[in-house]
Write a structure and sequence with these properties.
The protein is mainly α. It is 63% helix and 0% strand. This is NKX61 protein.
Length: 137
């Protein structure tokens, strides 16, 4: 028994055996909250006080909530980045719609040139109006 400077009993942290922790964790997997009778039975079977079991469950729930919140935040970030990726892909598909539409014979050469440059680096080496004697590539 440890005493503080005034001669009062100093509170020490209990250490639980591996078997006790294993049983507590197994019980926690099944239920996050223990009612009085279950807590009393568990405490008795593990050689612990009800107060120790109660505090262990409180601390374990806190740890579980923090981990659960972190996992939820990670999942949300992943979902948000996937949404952004898909949004970007759909924007590119909308841009591709212009390229995939049949060309209007009355459209100007500048618009056709821009579309070709956008989808083929360097304009794709195509000549739109070959001069007499030039072969198109």
């Amino acid at each position: 028994i440890l005493l503080d400077k005034d001669g009062k009993r100093k509170h020490t942290r209990p250490t639980f055996s591996g078997q006790q922790i294993f049983a507590l964790e197994k019980t926690f997997e099944q239920t996050k909250y223990l009612a009085g009778p279950e807590r009393a039975r568990l405490a008795y079977s593990l050689g612990m006080t009800e107060s120790q079991v109660k505090v262990w469950f409180q601390n374990r729930r806190t740890k579980w909530r923090k981990k659960h919140a972190a996992e939820m935040a990670t999942a949300k970030k992943k979902q948000d980045s996937e949404t952004e990726r898909l949004k970007g892909a759909s924007e590119n598909e909308e841009e591709d719609d212009d390229y995939n539409k049949p060309l209007d014979p009355n459209s100007d050469d500048e618009k056709i040139t821009q579309l070709l440059k956008k989808h083929k680096p360097g304009g794709g080496g195509l000549l739109l109006h070959p001069s007499e004697g030039e072969a198109s590539v």
